[in-house]
What does this fold into?
Amino acid sequence: MTSGPRTLFDKLWDAHVVVPESEQAPAVLYVDLHLVHEVTSPQAFAELDARGLPVRRPDLTKATMDHSTPTLPAGADGRLPYYTEAAENQVDMLAANCARHDIELFDFGSGQRGIVHVFAPELGFTRPGMTIVCGDSHTSTHGAFGALAFGIGTSEVGHVLATQCLLQRRPKTMAVTVEGELAPGVGAKDVILHVIGTIGVNGGTGHVIEYRGSTIRAMDMEQRMTLCNMSIEAGARAGMVAPDETTFAWLENTPRAPKGEAFEAARARWRELRGDEGARFDAEVAIDARDIRPTLTWGTHPGTAIGVDVPVPEAADAADRKGLEYMGLQAGRALAGTPVDVVFVGSCTNGRLGDMREVARVLRGRRVAPRVRMLVVPGSGQVKREAEAEGIDVVVREAGAEWREPGCSMCIAMNGDLVEPGQLAVSTSNRNFEGRQGPGSRTLLASPLTAAWAAVNGQVGDPRELFDSSRSREVAT
Amino acid sequence: MSTLQPLQRIVSAAVVLAQTNIDTDRIIPARFLSTTGREGLGAHAFNDWRRRADGSPDPDFPFNRPQNAGRSILLAGRNFGCGSSREHAPWALRDLGLRAVVSSQIADIFRNNALKNGLLPVVLPEATVQELMQRPDDAIEIDVAARELRTADGQVHRFALDAFARTCLLEGVDELSYLLGRAPDIQLYEERLHAR
It folds into this structure.
């Protein structure tokens, strides 16, 4: 137990310690929700099978398929157009493993299949105060609900399947406080890119971040998820936001959260989930919201974040130089005006309804520039249905962009949705690593608004132009 | 698969990848993650770095140089293993014959995954790593029990290694067996939780 005033992280950690840590051994930490997908689980199930072990808590385990799945619908023969036989085999294996171990699976027939970090919050599986893990680094997303949520490797997936526990050393804590009002055209994605640019791609290593301040409080749940999602891109184990009325209102509308009296009781407990006055963090960072511009990346890691109208810096070291060279960008010149080949909107970072609405807001009555391929991929079956109910699919298609089936798609480029070698993509995803979106692909990370605006202009533009006539320039419409 | 080979001592010259922020997409590109096994990933380790655009091996890439064959220590730039949680990264590196990664910073999830696969993460000060990178052909000795890295010219560098991780490596204990041994504690925790 932590003594004295405790942070939110301290409270979550303390509540889940099964065996305290010692010099000799890490803590045994209990896991409340384990999310499973097809890519990082087969070897874990195989390990259980090899040892003849059952899944300890199938009721606390939820599965879906997202990484290897096609984003084009089934053909006339009813078959899904998998990119490779291996991909289809992996998905089939997940279904077989879930059936054998009695794990609830949200598959193609369920209507709720989606990216693991989109479907679980929208169904109400993700709740305040929980420990949540998944064999996926972007599990930090769920911290938006005041949960301690982090990515694990496949061996650890096996540990949780078999024991519902993990061996963990207590991480350090970092407070990132953002105060003030964001300018129109600046959103949660810009905030987190700015944070990563400020603390660095390794600035959060060994830490759990708690995001605080008036800017964060003003964000809706989708925006908080975008924020927490990219905590790992600063190297942090997890990111979290203390739950509040915004959080409870979201949960009240989800099918799998407690109902009625049980919900009221849960809400009373959740209201206690905040850091104590005077609780100390190992590191603190303060950010003024007025300093945040529409932000993109210029290099080959997410720490190379910069305002759209700010000149790309001179390379500080050999790695930066290599990054600039790979990207084909020049120091001293702003990213605005950079020609674009592909625009990708989607992923666990920005594949939610609010993101789809932002895109529609830009595309309505406009056309995607002729040279540009634009892919819009809803994060889940539910996001797709809700967006279509608002006619967003029609807006997207009429603008000349592709409207796809839910999945990770071009963010990780495992399913055949690829950026071609040498092409430059503006993507709402989370990683701009060399070749991440396909061999030889070049990625600028950006918000949905910035991405859609780039698609229309055929080049990177400043989305504040959409809100401020004094900034506007000639735009192809 | 369930029992690890004990790791007590590594003696080898090193392979150098000096670049900072080498991410796990770089170590094993996502298109090779459709496998349902752990074996054979070494063939794709650093795939897009090792090969030229036409698919032929790039003779300048360190892992393609004949003199580096069989080396089991990687000296890497700061923040090695950042990005995705894919355990395919340490699987690929082990399959390549590596037993230790030495860097001035190693990303959290990669470090955890490496330890579960008998791949030793060694973090040393940046200046020390830079110095070691100047002489990759000299044999380096890593003593897990002593938590020491020793150079051919007699320098001794101590590194931090969690006591539990050290025991697991030295004795080939795997964490799952340890956790299964805590089943009574887990049972108690669940009963307490249920009672609340």
About this structure: Residues 183-195 of chain B form the longest helix (13 residues). The CA atoms of residues 79 and 165 of chain B lie 20 Å apart.
